[in-house]
Amino acid sequence: MDLNKWIIENTFHHSDFEDLSALVKEKERQGLTISLCIPTLNEEKTIGKEIVIFRSELQTRHKLVDELAVIDSGSKDRTREIARSFGADVYLASDILPDLGPKYGKGENLWKAIYQLKGDIIVYIDADIKNIHPRFAYGLLGPLILRPEIKYVKAFYDRPLAFSEGLRPSGGGRVTEILIRPMFSLFMPELSVIIQPLSGEYAVRREVLEAIPFPIGYGVETSHLIDVYSRWGLSAFGQTDLDQRVHRNQPTRDLGKMAFGILQTFLSRMTALGLISDLPKMNQVLRQFQAKDKDFEAVEYKIIEEERPPMLGIPEYADRLKELRKESKKD
Amino acid sequence: MQSGIADIIEHLPAVEKKIHHLSDVLLANLVMVSEIPAPTFDEENRMRFLVNRFTESNLINCSTDEMGNALGILPGKVGKRNILLAAHMDTIFDHSVDHTVTIYDDKVTGPGVGDNSLGVAVLATLPACLEYLHIHLDSNLILMGSSRCLGKGNVQGLNFFLENSDLPIHYGLCVEGMKLGRLSYSSIGMKMCEIHIEVPEEYDWTLFGTVGSIVTLHNVIDRILKIPLPRKPRSRVILGSVEGGKGFNKIATKAVIRLEIRSESGEIVEDIYRQLENIVAEIGSDAGEEVNMNIVSQCSPGGLTFNHPLVVLTRELMNAAKIKPRISPSTSDLTAFIAHSIPALTLGLTDGDNLDEMHSTIYIEPVYKGLALLLGAILAVDKGYCDGPQ
After folding, report:
1. Is the CA virtual torsion A259, A262, A264, A269 positive or negative?
2. Which residues, numbered 95 to 114 in chain B, qualify as contacts with chain A under a Cβ-Cβ cut-off of 8 Å?
3. What is the ipTM of this complex?
4. Can you name the CATH fold of A3-330?
5. Burial of B207 from C-beta contacts in 10 A (0-12 / 13-18 / 19+)
6. How far is A51 from chain B, CA to nearest CA, in Å?
7. A156-180 pLDDT tens trace
8. I need a labelling partner for B267 at 20 to 30 A (CA). Which of A126, A153, B183, B207 fits?
């Protein structure tokens, strides 16, 4: 595929979709339903604002989103109460498909959203965005509504502090630039056109979500890209510039854990695809070091990248789909 | 009590209850307005947001003017009377401040949420409120986000509009975020001044053993504190802030005092100001430093009386809603209406804390009561209940 052509045709800016009336009209013409899912864990400081903004702009003023839901991992703060008080549907991840047992991680919430929510499209938005704006949702939904061949739209954020005309570097965070992009460049060069493969915001068609497995932890975004690319190709992707995203900055130590988890997922995917072979059994303990007086000591973290299978393989999901179809016919 | 106002009072509780349905729109507007920095003289982005909101609400004449005011008109069924509803858009926080707002289930915190992002958010939400409540006014309702109100802005935005608009304004209502119960219908005499102390560049330190501009600043303050102030009419000199020097071991070459003279009597404001001018001249000549004073903002005392029908009916609405009136004079947008002899008052919308702090907080639930009160006042004006003898 001509990568420059793909970038021109499949890279968007949120302002391309700011005519929400037109977007709603087209959504209704196609009979699409849209769910907005916010996975949470102790996000009481930001969740109220996200719910209020999305409800006002994407439900009350423009009927773009049919369902606004929070799927919570068991917050110890007031996240669920606050989200509920502003009108979101709030679910505890462990209450969804309880017979499958609990697993803890953002990927678990994203996966369970496929079962719980009703939309033909689900848009996932992280809960820790300080400068939340409706563009975070409509910027990702626009390509799916207006371009039927696109199935998976990722966010990227790009706003230089100062810029005079000409070239400027553009890309992702530290883990993306020193781990993900080099790995994609080595094994799946086409995927290196995704500007921010680890961004936590994306909108996806149900037909894709239900067909792909979900790592529970750090590897969920990476595995999505690999799995969607392997099955539907690069043309299934779109990416949208959402301008600036203000959020908590992660310390380098935490990025190390993230990279360790992602690497596990990446290597297992490459092995499954036959792109690498004869790997030894991978260790799941990450060692980091800290100094105590004049001595160094190792701190060990066990990071296991567990995975949920494609939702289509879960028997309860078949029943749920029947329910959803019945509801859809009634409407 | 007039039967008409009794009718409005009877419906206020239902109005308050119903407008809860628009809470997400109101709070979203509050967040979006609050997170757009709008220091005085730089309100353009906030103005654009508000004009867009007016346009989306199908107001007519959605526009801005050369002062950067945001305007839109909700035309009335009859249109003989024009009511101007104004909320100042500017804040005391500059662009470098983190404008992020946090919403809890009962309150909203962030810089400027109460002064005056909530007022602006209410303007943005009001057309939807009126539509939802099926209220169709007889009068034209002009909604205005006013620019350049605070401090050095000296109420330039609203004054400009009132001086240059062809529309005759029959009544004015100013909307302020805080506090619920605030009722301002008069202005006091006020002069806001800056005193600048500067050591000339050619100053020869070896000749004079001077200690620099901070000591001069101290001398000026010392003299200001000795100005006799009458108890009646009530008068004050507020020393707002001082600034000077660059560190530990450099003699300060510049210093500034910011202060405000306030009095119920315009003559006393002028008298205190003259005394200040003398102090500045005298110390300037003694110290060999340049001491200058300039007026940043000023207004004259005036306004409605306690018995003006607009004030009386608003108090009746407050009493019926069990809101305790907090009567205080104003030195902001209301002064422009007063200067143009337009009957007007300022209403506060909700309770809150730390008004001009970074973590300013407003409480959500009282906003609905404040908004119902505002709607009641608009209806009272619209129906002509405030047109009686003044």
Report:
1. negative
2. 100-105
3. 0.81
4. Spore Coat Polysaccharide Biosynthesis Protein SpsA; Chain A (3.90.550)
5. exposed
6. 8
7. 986 443 444 444 445 567 888 899 9
8. B183
